[in-house]
Amino acid sequence: MQKIQARQVKRVLGYSTLPGVLPRFQELFGSGFGQLAFLFAYVLQTARILPPGHPYLNPSNIGKFTIRQVFAQGASHLIFDRRHIDQVIIYGTLMCGFVLLALQFLFLTCFLVIRPAAAAIAIPFAGMFDTPVAQRDTDIALQLLDKIFGVPGFFGSLYDTGAPLPFQEALQELFQFYSYALLLVGVIIFLYYALVLVAETAQTGTPFGRRFSHIWAPLRLVVAIGLLMPLTWGYNSAQYIVLFTAKMGSGFATNAWLLYNSSLDNALGARNESLFARPKVPDSWPIVKF
After folding, report:
1. CB burial class (10 A; 0-12, 13-18, 19+) of residue 181?
2. Which single residue of 74, 109, 265, 275 has CA 20 to 30 Å from 284?
3. Count of alpha carbons within 13 Å of 24, Cβ hemisphere only?
4. Contact 47, 79 (CB under 8 A)
């Protein structure tokens, strides 16, 4: 009995001091993406490749098989003839879609790690999501964001005066009041869950209780409180994430447009004036007559 109590105390102390980050990631990613494997199994069963009573179609077996095993079972049930050509096509399409999905994440990681050479681009390119310095003053999107939110030194447009204007201060106070109100509600919910977790941990001997996800429960609580925490100029963390996203999106669009204009070539050999689209002016005589 003392050994069991000592083991439970050790588990609780381990969760409170070092919440086992590596075991959590291993539990999350080591199951072979069980939900996705279960979805693929259902797609194969819909195409009549897997039989209806296959173990991979049982929701209680989620996490006990991987995507590779699902494709292996599907390949073992395939019949390569003219009558089952639809099953072969569906199986090949599903496999190609999964390969493309994996390659997409691989290429995205490589693209973020390996930066393109700035010398290969003929325009000032400080970063993919950063608006060039020469374009910040006259960038309409940055001017609009500065006019509305008024965060000094954030967007860096022509209207960044170094201090918010009266209407911008009013908007910031409004957002700050909103953040404090929701933070109060979030703290109450957090304290309630903390009491419930402590009570269930003391009753069951399992850290965080048995009805909570050991991976996502503490992460959700911490992230929720962190996103509602007010920062400078009245905006909270979540709102700053939105502002950063808008700034980076504007920079990405500006760089793409500058790159397009610098690479555009007159393939027809016509005058540049003739390349602009000339909209047809509608006839105003019916309006005048009316």
Report:
1. exposed
2. 275
3. 13
4. no
Beta-bridge partners for 236:
230
| Average model confidence (pLDDT) across the chain | 76
Structure-model confidence comparison of residues 234 and 29, the more confident one: 234
Please answer whether residues 196 and 209 qualify as being in contact, where contact means their C-beta atoms are separated by less than 8 angstroms: yes
Residue 290 CA to residue 285 CA, distance in Å, equals: 8
User: Per the structure block, which two tokens stand in for 241?
Assistant: 């994430």
pTM of the model: 0.49
Helix locations, the chain, DSSP H:
2-17, 21-29, 34-46, 67-77, 85-113, 133-136, 140-149, 166-204, 216-228, 237-263, 285-289
Task: Determine the pLDDT at residue 63.
Answer: 75
Q: Reply yes or no on whether the pLDDT at 11 is more than 50.
A: yes
Q: At what angle do helices 85-113 and 34-46 cross, to 10 degrees?
A: 150
Shortest CA distance to 213 belongs to which of 188, 193, 189? 193
Residue 121 structure tokens: 């681009």
pLDDT band at 104 (very low <50, low <70, confident <90, very high): confident
Per-residue pLDDT, 120: 42
Tokens of 38: 């279960």
Find out whether 251 and 123 touch, Cβ atoms under 8 Å.
no
End-to-end CA distance of the chain: 97
Q: Cα–chain-centroid distance for residue 56? A: 29
d(CA 142, CA 155): 6
Q: What is the CA radius of gyration of the chain?
A: 29
